[in-house]
């Protein structure tokens, strides 16, 4: 067992983990943070995407011990209390989800995308979320939702 300390959604967590434990399993099984989903476990689908020290990463490809000392943001950390993040609200308003399996990873990736590029074109949005697969929506509503969230954030109507 190895001791780790990291910040998850603003809260410091200290734990003992097996060195081979993947970050996605640590989050879901040890910390009960079930927003990020386990999809392919090969980094192709993006359902497990989290923000790690300011970068989008697929938590199925990172060991928990590699996150020692890191700041991790999951979909649960986007909302402020009962108020949804503008991305979460835009996904709801624009039907940017159907089954919802990809949604936590898609939202977390879109969050980082908008921090990196606050006013992306639709093509830049599509490229920015290319590592996250949605098998239900056809992406039109997802792109529309991200565009709407960007517009609201840029107009000062939301967080970050």
What's the short version?
Helices cover 32% and strands 16% of the residues. By secondary structure, it is α+β, with helices and mostly antiparallel strands. The longest helix has 15 residues.
Number of strands: 5
Helicity, in percent?
Answer: 25-40%
**CATH class group of the largest domain:** Alpha Beta
User: What is the CATH fold-level name of the largest domain?
Assistant: Ubiquitin-like (UB roll)
Largest beta sheet: strand ordering: 2-1-5-3-4
Shape: globular
The CATH homologous superfamily of the largest domain is named: Beta-grasp domain
| Strand content range | 15-25%
Shape-level CATH architecture of the largest domain: Roll
Report on the biggest sheet.
5 strands, mixed
How many structurally independent domains?
A: 2
Return the average pLDDT rounded to an integer. 95
**Total number of helices:** 5
Radius of gyration: 15 Å
Distance between the termini: 37 Å
Task: Explain what you see.
The protein has 160 residues and is an alpha+beta fold. It has two domains: 75 residues, Roll (Ubiquitin-like (UB roll)); 69 residues, [2Fe-2S]-binding domain (DNA polymerase, domain 1, Orthogonal Bundle). The chain contains five helices and five strands, in the order ββαβββαααα. It has a five-stranded mixed β-sheet, covered by helices on one side. A hairpin with a 2-residue loop joins strand 1 and strand 2. Helix 2 packs across helix 5. The longest helix is centred in the C-terminal third of the chain and has 15 residues. It is globular and about 45 Å long. The relative contact order is 0.16.
